[in-house]
Amino acid sequence: MTYIKATSVLPEELVKEIQKYIQGETIYIPKPGKTYKQWGTVSGERRRIDERNNSLKEAFKSGISMSQLAKEYYLSIETVKKIVYTK
């Protein structure tokens, strides 16, 4: 997260109005909902996890045990169960 000085991007009147409520503190202004991206879409991590889960499901279908998959993928058996039994 980057910090931007309010006086450099906001009109002076708006800065004065905000100062009525908060002075000298950090304030977070979220993006509008339409511009929000889901976790991992920018970094590609979501795609990597989806690929891992798909290969884990295929390995289970081919007969590899859950305990073996847990060791191979460094996951708990409960996590492997969740991945294998979800659609």
Protein model, in words:
- The chain has 87 residues and is mainly α.
- The chain has one domain (6-85).
- Helices cover 53% and strands 0% of the residues.
- The mean pLDDT is 92.
What would the keywords be for this entry?
5 helices; mainly alpha; 0% strand; rod-shaped; 87 residues
How many strands, which pairing sense, and closed or not: the largest β-sheet?
A: none
How many independent structural domains?
1
Proportion in helices: 40-55%
Overall shape: rod-shaped
Which residue ranges are poorly predicted, with pLDDT under 50 across at least 5 consecutive positions? Answer: none
Residue-averaged pLDDT: 92
Structural class: mainly alpha
Span of the ends, CA to CA: 35 Å
Beta-strand content bin? under 5%
**From N to C, what is the helix and strand string?**
HHHHH
The gyration radius over C-alpha positions equals 23 Å
Q: Please tally the β strands and state the result.
A: 0
- Count the helices. How many? 5
Task: Write a short abstract of this structure.
It is built from five helices and no strands. It has 87 residues and is an all-alpha fold.
Write the layout of secondary structure elements.
Elements: H1 6-9, H2 12-19, H3 45-61, H4 66-73, H5 77-85
Helix pairs in contact: 4-5
